[in-house]
Write a structure and sequence with these properties.
Elements: E1 9-14, E2 32-39, H1 42-49, E3 54-56, E4 59-63, E5 73-78, H2 86-101, H3 119-128, E6 147-149, H4 200-219, H5 251-255, E7 267-275, H6 279-283, H7 285-299, H8 309-317, E8 335-343, E9 346-355, E10 359-367, H9 376-392, E11 400-406, E12 422-425, E13 432-434, H10 436-442
Helix pairs in contact: 2-9
Length: 457
């Protein structure tokens, strides 16, 4: 419990009225239960999100799953077991190239931003509601939060590659191929002295087979030709011992690998407590709001008057969560924070997160539209997974990353299921079920009750 506080105060609003759905745009199809939270302990909120609730500012809501047009299932990623997929490595490589050379990729983001579009119902309800003002004991302002990370990711390496391939300035000559010279004249058909052209797919297959043969020989498999005796060597941190499968490169290796000295940009991620606001949050408030306003107008097509400063405070700065710093918790304590992404003295993105007893919960992500092509929604999610893993070393039970809601009926929101391993929360039994057991059933039904037993009905 928070120091001096041991209670949660909420006002229940009900859930009979339909609101506009931010996913399918149904004007009256979004149904949810809601309540205004004046103050809430982090453990109470942890219990709530493990029952399908979620907050938007101080408004806490739960979709009425059997009634709403687009059922929203709580999703979590097992942060400790996460391995970046090919698309995630592409995102990290894109950022690394930008930091190194200053090159922004052409086109827009590959995925939807890592945010919840459900704030529309929450904002409408809170705008209509006039909750009674309840006085609560003041919570002492915490010490300023420090910098989370000051390094930037490097380009990911493909498994099995020890370095960049050698590139020749021109096509290989006959001498380069080790073949006798020929007097063959151009334009007279294929040169018999040159090897026939081969598809890149065939070359990759051949190299893979060669590696497998070498691996079997080193591992001493029966039927393999005896390997030439060699002097044992100590494997590098990312290299598997002889006879073992190579270990995949961890997420941190991509993120924290140093950039060359000639890099044009340096990325810094600063963690600041937003509620109660720490001095760094107050000092950077205007810069953060300006990024939010540009984001809402460019990405969500809001008119200039909609993303007002008061709306920004109510939606992304105000939080009912009380700051708590238990002995077994992370160094900065529990509560609501902003992760600010800085390029030099310019703020380019902000990830809003809640740090709770067993998870880091992603609330929202907004960024400067100029950097949309960097896929900052995906990039920030990867950084937040790494952040969760960092906190788990300080607080062992904090091992999950909550991505908000997974909406299978909205194809643009299915990308959240790519952060594996992942679970969906059953809306009736409140048990976590691996997402692989859920998606097939969601193809055939809008609303599904999941079971831990895949053979159960």
């Amino acid at each position: 419990m928070a120091e001096g506080l041991s209670y949660t105060i909420v006002e229940y609003f009900g859930g009979d009225d339909g609101y506009r759905c931010g996913y399918c745009k149904n004007e009256k199809g979004n149904f949810s239960h809601g309540m205004w939270s004046h103050t809430m302990t982090v453990q109470d909120y942890q219990d709530l999100i493990d029952r399908g609730w979620r907050r938007s500012g101080k408004y806490v809501y739960k979709p009425t799953m059997k009634k709403t047009c687009c059922p929203q299932y709580t999703i979590r990623c097992h942060a400790l077991n996460f391995q970046p997929a090919k698309s995630h490595k592409k995102t990290l490589k894109k950022m690394s190239k930008f930091l190194s050379k200053g090159e922004l990729p052409a086109g827009g983001p590959d995925e939807e931003p890592m945010d919840s579009l459900c704030e529309e119902a929450g904002l409408k309800r809170t705008a209509k509601a006039c909750p009674t003002q309840v006085e609560v004991a003041a919570v002492p302002e915490p010490q300023p939060a420090g910098v989370v990370a000051a390094s930037a990711p490097a380009a990911p390496e493909k498994s099995g590659q020890g370095g960049p391939p050698t590139v020749q300035d021109g096509p290989p000559t006959v001498q380069d191929a080790g073949l006798p010279s020929s007097t063959h004249k151009p334009g007279k058909g294929a040169d018999p002295a040159r090897p026939p052209c081969r598809k890149a797919k065939d070359l990759r297959k051949e190299r893979r087979l060669q590696k497998e043969q070498i691996k079997r020989a080193v591992g001493g498999d029966s039927g393999a030709s005896p390997a030439t005796p060699t002097t044992p060597t100590t494997p590098t941190p990312n290299q598997a011992p002889p006879g073992h499968a190579p270990q995949p490169k961890p997420l941190e290796a991509f993120i924290h690998e140093s950039l060359p000295d000639t890099a044009l940009h340096r990325l810094e991620v600063r963690l600041v407590r937003s509620s109660p606001p720490c001095p760094q949050f107050k000092a950077s408030f205007d810069a953060s709001y300006q990024v939010y306003k540009l984001y809402q107008m460019a990405i969500h097509k809001d008119p200039p008057e909609k993303p007002s400063e008061s709306q920004f405070r109510r939606f992304l700065c105000d939080s009912p969560l009380e700051a708590e710093s238990p002995p077994d918790g992370p160094e900065m304590g529990y509560g609501s924070f902003h992760q600010q992404y800085w390029l030099g003295d310019r703020m380019v993105a902000v990830g809003v997160v809640d740090v709770l007893p067993t998870c880091v919960s992603s609330v929202y992500l907004y960024y400067h539209p100029e950097f949309a092509s960097l896929s900052l929604g995906s990039y920030s999610a990867l950084r937040e997974i790494a952040f969760t893993r960092q906190l788990q070393k300080q607080s062992p039970k904090l091992a999950y990353y909550y991505l908000g809601f997974y909406i299978h009926s909205c194809p643009k929101m299915r990308y959240k299921g790519k952060y594996l391993p992942a679970d969906l929360l059953c809306p009736e039994t409140f048990v976590w079920v691996p997402i692989e057991r859920c998606t097939a059933r969601l193809e055939n039904a809008r609303y599904v009750r999941f079971n831990q037993d895949p053979d159960a009905g």
